[in-house]
Structures are given as structure tokens and as C-alpha cells.
């Protein structure tokens, strides 16, 4: 035992006399103290964080700050870091538009578009001037896509403000933007992404009388618009815009109705004459035909048909009609007064298709869509047949039918066949070998002989019905010659269809 004690004493004496061993022990002790200190600080920090979080949760009985939400339902702007970021973005955008922005950074940001469109195509897009009319769900997505892709100049036209209900489909609006003009919202958000893009915002309602000023060249250097995007949901304004662009040779693309649609696989780009199964497209096309525009306008439209269980535009309640003139219930005259069911994704699909078309067309990238129907030859044939039938009918009633003139043109035939009768026979619903013929036997003097040397047929457009050629021959024999009433020849469903289509036509005719 004494030998063990003496050995331990000798070892302790050696350790105490060894400087290196002393340093090692000191370092080990210091490391242990440091680790313990860090762990302790972390635990303390975690405890204080949990304590602060719990304290930040207001008591259920505590009063709420009602001024945190404005009258529009949006957040009240405050002098926050986010607000300062907006101001810095605006200042950066002002400098970038003056040229104070690195070109290499721009090209890096647009690198994917650059390799797709080539340098030449991207250069065209960066020099392009595009006007977007309507900055809601469709227009905002089209604008955002164009700005992100490098479009150099964008003029935004819309009279409306961002609302809470806008947020389900608007491309960039936030809760803080509720109550602000849609055009300003788009500029403020997009200049944070592409500060070099030049924006011109017009918080205005588009109209036929203001079209020339609103679609005028860029003010600084007189650059003519390279493209106009129609994202308006009001038919009268839409028709005015498309007619102005068509008449003045401005390239334009129009978005038809995204409301009540849910199938993105049925969205197409094509000529307006090829658009089907879309009430907004049908009404727009019909009104444009009245102004002499039957094709040559590219549109984005959906071929999706309505069905049981799908969203529909519900009729206005009777108590709203009881309030007086329904037109007075709208935000503006002639604007819709019912809420249109809209799935938030569909306006985005339409808007991106619009922007895609504009980019391809401006840059010269190959694209091939649904062509116009180009059925003028067929309309000529139908008009010739109608002329022959009217001559035979006049002769049957004792008139000299040689040289009789009809007040019906090829464009009228196209309008009747496509817009009134939807390219189908009213009798059988068939769409081939079509013809037009009087629905009822003419009464009285249906040929005007008052002008010497001139025989004018008094035929009206709403007297004509679309049938197949075989049905037309049977109708001529039984109705126009034998004098039978259509109600005696056809069933109730056919007669009601004809009357309904004529009522619609008379309503449209008031606007012709």
C-alpha cells in the first residue's frame, strides 16, 4: 500500500512539474466551461423567444385595432420596411428607364427567352410597344408575362380599382393594393421585377370616342403600337376597340369569356370566325359583322360547353328588377350587373395565351392557329339560290320576275348563316348543304314596282330561315307554293326555335 501511495505521489509531482500537461488540462477545462455557457445561453434565448411569442398573442377580451383595415378591406399603408422597399423600387425603376442599369444583368434575367427567341427576336420584343386595355384577371396576367419576358413599353388602360374579389384571379395584386387603380397596382408591382420596362398608366374607361387618343403613338418618340390586347369584359367597349384596330390596321388580339369555364384543355387561339360555344364571342362576332368585320381578328376562346352541375350566370333576382331600370344597377351604364362565376385559374390561362401570341407575332416566331372559316364561296352559292327562289316565288304570284333585285348581300348571308342560325339547319340541325328561304308565304305586294324599270324585292332578313337544300325544296313546295302555314308543316319545337332566333335578331338589329 505504501508503494502505491509513493507511486501516485511521484506521478502527481511529475504532472505538477510538466508545463505541457498543465496547458492541456487548462484547455480541457476551458472548453467544458465554454460549451456549458453556450448551451445555457441557447436555452435562455429559446425561453425568452417563447415568452415573447406568448405575450404577443392578444387576449380574447383585448380591443382590436379596427383601423388596421381600410374601408375597401385592404391593409392601411404604414411607414414600414415594406413601404420603403416600394419607394426604393420606384427610384431604381426611374434610374433604369434612364439607362442607369447594367445591360448584362438584363440579358441574364432574360436568358431563357433569349435562347428561345434568339437575339434578334428578343431585341424586337425589347423595342416593342404594347397596349393592354383591361387590367383585371386576363389583362394582369398578360401584362405580367410580357414585362417578365422583356417587352420594352407597356401602356395600361383600365378605369377600375382592385377589390377584394379581384384577388382570386389578379396576377400581382395584394391585400394592400385593394382600393388602388389596377393600372397603378400593376406598374408598382412589376417595376420591382423589371425596372427597365417603361409603363404608361391611364386610369380611364375605354370608349369609341376616346379610342384615337388612348391608342395613340408613344408620346416621347411617336412609336406606333406594335400590338393591342383586348382584355375587356364589356361587349360594347370590346367591339369598339376591335373595330377601331381593324379599321386602322393595328394588330390586336382579343380575349373572349373566361367566366363559367373550368377546362384549360379547351382553350384555343384562332380567328374570331372560328370561335364557338362562347356567348361573349358570339355576341362580339355578331356585332362586329354588323360593322363589316367578319374575320381577321385573332381571339382566345374556350370551346367548353355548359352542362348540369357546372357554373352558370344566374338570372337577376325579381326583387332587383322591382327596383327599377336594371341598367341603373350597374357600376357604369351598359356594364353587367350580375356577378360572373370565375374560377381564378382560367383568366390566367387566357391571359398567358394572349401574351404568348403577342410575343410570337412580334418576334416572328412560327405559329399556326385555327384559321378563319373563309366560307365566302359558300355564301355566294346560298345567295344565288335565294335569288332563284325569290324569282320563282314572284313569278308564282304573277310578277315579272326577270331582273328582280334583292336587298340581301353576301355579308348578310354570312351573318344570317353563322350568327343567327349558328351554321345549322333550323329544321334538322344539320350543318351541310345549307340554304336560306322565306319562312312564310309572302303577303300583299312583296315586290316594289314603284320605280320605273326597277323591281325591288321587299324581303327582310328576319323572314329568312336556314335549312338544308333538300329541306328548302320541300319548304318551297308546301309553304311558298301550296300556301300552308309553317305550324302545319313543322312541330312546335322547330317553330319556337325560329321565333326565338328572330326575336334575338330584332334585338341586335336595333344596333345595326
From TrEMBL:
<dbReference type="InterPro" id="IPR000594">
    <property type="entry name" value="ThiF_NAD_FAD-bd"/>
</dbReference>
<keyword id="KW-0436">Ligase</keyword>
<dbReference type="GO" id="GO:0005524">
    <property type="term" value="F:ATP binding"/>
</dbReference>
<keyword id="KW-0812">Transmembrane</keyword>
<dbReference type="InterPro" id="IPR035985">
    <property type="entry name" value="Ubiquitin-activating_enz"/>
</dbReference>
<comment type="similarity">
    <text>Belongs to the HesA/MoeB/ThiF family.</text>
</comment>
<keyword id="KW-0496">Mitochondrion</keyword>
<keyword id="KW-0067">ATP-binding</keyword>
<keyword id="KW-0472">Membrane</keyword>
<feature type="domain" description="THIF-type NAD/FAD binding fold">
    <location>
        <begin position="112"/>
        <end position="392"/>
    </location>
</feature>
<dbReference type="GO" id="GO:0061503">
    <property type="term" value="F:tRNA threonylcarbamoyladenosine dehydratase"/>
</dbReference>
<dbReference type="GO" id="GO:0005741">
    <property type="term" value="C:mitochondrial outer membrane"/>
</dbReference>
<dbReference type="Pfam" id="PF00899">
    <property type="entry name" value="ThiF"/>
</dbReference>
<dbReference type="GO" id="GO:0008641">
    <property type="term" value="F:ubiquitin-like modifier activating enzyme activity"/>
</dbReference>
<keyword id="KW-1000">Mitochondrion outer membrane</keyword>
<comment type="function">
    <text>Catalyzes the ATP-dependent dehydration of threonylcarbamoyladenosine at position 37 (t(6)A37) to form cyclic t(6)A37 (ct(6)A37) in tRNAs that read codons beginning with adenine.</text>
</comment>
<keyword id="KW-1133">Transmembrane helix</keyword>
<dbReference type="GO" id="GO:0061504">
    <property type="term" value="P:cyclic threonylcarbamoyladenosine biosynthetic process"/>
</dbReference>
<dbReference type="InterPro" id="IPR045886">
    <property type="entry name" value="ThiF/MoeB/HesA"/>
</dbReference>
<protein>
    <recommendedName>
        <fullName>THIF-type NAD/FAD binding fold domain-containing protein</fullName>
    </recommendedName>
</protein>
<keyword id="KW-0547">Nucleotide-binding</keyword>
